[in-house]
Amino acid sequence: MSKLSGAYYEIHHMEQLANEDQWVNRIHPLVKLVITVLYIMTVVSVHKYNLARILILGVYPIAMFILGEISFADSIRRVRLILPLVCIVGIFNPFFDRQVIAHIGNIAITTGMISMVTLILKGVYTVFATYILVATTTIEKICYAMRLVHIPGILVTQILLTYRYISVLLKEANTIMQAYLLRAPHQKGVQMKVWGSLVGQLLLRSIDRADNVYASMTLRGYHGEFCYARQKKCSGKDYAYLLLWVAVFGILRYII
Amino acid sequence: MSHIHIDIEHVSFGYETNQNVLNDITFTAHENESIGIIGANGMGKSTLLKLLVGLELPTKGSIYVEEIPVIREMLPKVREKIGYVFQDSESQLFMNTVKEDIAFAPRNYGLPEEEVQAHVQRAMERTHIQHLKDKSIYKLSGGEKKQVAIATILAMTPDIILMDEPTVGLDPQNRRNLIKILNEFNHLKLIASHDLDMVYDTCNRVILIADGQIAADGIPQKILTDKELLECNHLELPLRFQA
Ligand SMILES: Nc1ncnc2c1ncn2[C@@H]1O[C@H](COP(=O)(O)OP(=O)(O)OP(=O)(O)O)[C@@H](O)[C@H]1O
Ligand SMILES: [Mg+2]
Questions:
Q1: Distance from first CA to last CA of chain A, Å, rounded?
Q2: B163 - beta bridge partners?
């Protein structure tokens, strides 16, 4: 599989995951959205030297991976490009913040080291919390939840269509590459001099496709406001699930 | 005058790069008519259908769908009445799964969710695609995409159906089923196609387009049996009349 079709496949695999009929998938999307946002806020609000608290807060992603039967290996593979970025954020702390607070054997532990680890963990948790949301909720449902909390429709539609556009772009790119490679079987990669026209083609074709999709939407009654499938109301279970996590976050953040 | 009809009055159209695709076209399509639009490649069949739903607007002349003029301000009203299956059904589908895509239109028309589901169910039954219900639209075969595209417009319960090459990519059985669906739909339909046998089976009027104009307009029994007329327009007799 080429890189392009691989990427394309990944997106649809994620959608399929999100579409499964597991208990996590069935929880009301608004509840999941709120929990994710609350969790991220809780994590971010922890003090930079409070390593213990940050470690404890890892309970949410860990619990979700286990209870929701989300594959951890897959998730690592999917976020592998973001994780290093997250890690870079804290990497300079040990150099600036050199106050020694303890020794382990001969190694001096500085506050900078602590804050580096906290910062990295905060980043990693945030990424995983988002991943968990996306892996258990389809983009339509997330957008629906966003509309429920009155995020402007135009913004939400943008997000939804941008997401769709990625697939269109990838698919067109893949088709063009395959057509090219089939007619240039002895080449490795794409010749310099045709790059221009390939990229131009890609742009034109994906604009064309986007145009068609838009036409098809308006032909089927779209007037600027996306109509999401109305989800069933939050049930008692949903509220219980929400309260449970809010309580857990509260306890981990303020009490322990 | 009957309720469902389309009036096309002296319509001309050209794309920026290709002036004069259609030239002074005039005809009226009435209720219960089933019109086959035929003609060689690039003669403007698809363009004509696009004009009817306002995807392109005529450079000259005017079009009325049930007395509503096809102009920019009236497009939502016009489009509520018309279901249009694209020639390239791939780009017609855009939701995540088949059932979501079929539900798109009924939901937009504000139907309650149970009715939306009933429409979806019926459209899938009629096109025989229940088994594709939860499939991602990106994983459908060419012919399956066509069937889903047809289901999406059946779910709209339109007054008028426009179809651009609906049989391309369908296996013989699904092609026959499509003919059955088309024959069951008896308000007004316009079908652009090179599949003259299908046109013969489903249409009671045929319009032949050549060089931007209507070269012939009449009953299929007359036009589709006229070997000379068809051949000078790059077409051939339907298979049943060959041999
Ligand atoms: N978007 C466009 N921009 C410019 N010219 C176009 C565009 N779409 C079609 N044309 C041109 O307009 C003419 C009519 O095209 P149209 O697609 O209506 O033909 P058609 O009769 O449907 O052909 P086919 O049988 O191949 O589907 C063709 O010459 C085509 O090259
Ligand atoms: Mg065409």
A1: 49
A2: B85, B191
Residue position matching structure tokens 């309970």 = A59
Contacts of A199 (CB under 8 A, 6+ apart): none
**pTM of the predicted model as reported, rounded to 2 decimal places:** 0.78
User: pLDDT of A163-196, one tens digit each?
Assistant: 888 887 888 888 788 777 777 667 777 777 778 8
How are beta strands B82-85 and B160-164 bridged, if at all? parallel
Q: Which residues of B touch A227 (CB under 8 A)?
A: 104, 107-108, 110
Asked whether residue A1 carries a pLDDT value surpassing 80, the answer given is: no
Predicted ipTM > 0.90: no
Q: How far is A41 from chain B (nearest CA, A)?
A: 31
For A31, the token pair is 């509840």
Tokens of A196: 């221009």
Torsion angle of the four alpha carbons B109, B115, B121, B125, in this order, in degrees rounded to the nearest 10: -80
Per CB-CB distance under 8 Å, the chain B contacts of A21 are none
Higher pLDDT, B86 or A182: B86
Compare CB distances from B76 to A8, A212, A223 and report the shortest one's residue: A223
How far apart CA B159 and CA B234 sit, in angstroms, is 32
What structural domains and CATH numbers belong to chain B?
Answer: 5-236 (3.40.50.300)
Q: What is the pLDDT of residues A60-72, one digit of tens each?
A: 999 999 988 888 8
The confidence band for B7, taking pLDDT boundaries of 50, 70 and 90, is: very high
Provide the 3-class DSSP secondary structure of residue A241. helix
* Sequence spans of domains, chain A: 20-137+233-255, 153-219
The better pLDDT of the pair B2, A185 is held by A185
The span from the CA of B51 to the CA of B43, in Å, is 14
The B-side interface with A (CB below 8 A) comprises: 53, 55, 75-76, 79-80, 82-84, 86, 88, 91-97, 100, 103-105, 107-110, 113, 116, 134, 136, 138-139, 152-153, 156
User: Which segments of chain A does DSSP mark as H helices, in order?
Assistant: 3-19, 23-26, 29-45, 51-57, 59-67, 72-79, 82-89, 93-96, 111-136, 139-148, 153-183, 192-219, 236-250
| Atom in ligand 1 nearest the alpha carbon of residue B47 | 18
**Cα–Cα distance, A201 to A190 (Å, whole number):** 14
